[in-house]
Amino acid sequence: MPTPLRTDVHTAAQRSKNMSAVRSRNTKPELQFRHALYAAGLRYRLNVQLPGKPDIVFIRARVAVFVDGCFWHSCPTHSTYPKTNAMWWERKLTRNKQRDLHVNAVLAGLGWLVLRVWEHEVGGGEQGDLKCAVARVQAVVRARSCQK
Ligand SMILES: [Zn+2]
């Protein structure tokens, strides 16, 4: 959990560090999820230049997958608002949510199907959840690969 900071002590560097934390790459949950997808026979691409920088991309099926951090993307089960400087955090986390919705819409407009999985689904060590998340991606990717 990030340490809450007062707005007035936010330097530009700190702000940009916070921004990058929203979409940090190669987090442990993300790696775990990627390994599970690979083990399930799915072949994906990373670092594809698309709006919102999806974590995992299936080019042929046009499926973009995001692994959303529970804190930064306000997961309904684990979202917390830091009590210090609460207003600033609330605005920030609300903006993140709005950005996610915007990215979903932009990608959909470009013909991509967006799947979002929570960090807690794929990184919590709960095999059931990880398997379900993999199955969800697998079903969609398979279906969309056959459509052409
Ligand atoms: Zn969560």
Protein topology:
Layout: H1 12-22, H2 28-39, E1 56-58, E2 63-68, H3 86-109, E3 113-118, H4 119-123, H5 127-146
The protein binds zinc ion (ZN).
Overall description:
This protein has helices at about 10-20, 30-40, 85-110, 120-125, 125-145; strands at about 55-60, 65-70, 115-120. The chain is globular, with a radius of gyration of 16 Å. It is about 50% helix and about 10% strand. The chain has a three-stranded mixed sheet with strand order 1-2-3, with helices on both faces. The chain is built from five helices and three strands, in the order H-H-E-E-H-E-H-H. A hairpin with a 4-residue loop joins strand 1 and strand 2 (about 65-70). The chain is mainly alpha-helical and about 150 residues long. Bound molecules: zinc ion (ZN). Zinc ion (ZN) binds near residues 70, 75, 78 and 118. Zinc ion (ZN) binds near residues 70, 75, 77, 78 and 120.
Largest sheet: 3 strands, mixed
* Residues in β-strands, percent: 5-15%
Care to count the β-strands?
3
Unreliable runs, pLDDT <50, ≥5 residues?
3-10
Topology order in helix (H) and strand (E) letters: HHEEHEHH
- Strand order in space, largest sheet: 1-2-3
Distance between the termini: 44 Å
Helix content: 40-55%
Question: How many DSSP H or I helices?
Answer: 5
Structural class: mainly alpha
Q: Which molecules other than protein and nucleic acid are bound?
A: zinc ion
Gyration radius over CA: 16 Å
Query: How much is the average pLDDT?
Result: 85
Q: What is the 3D shape?
A: globular
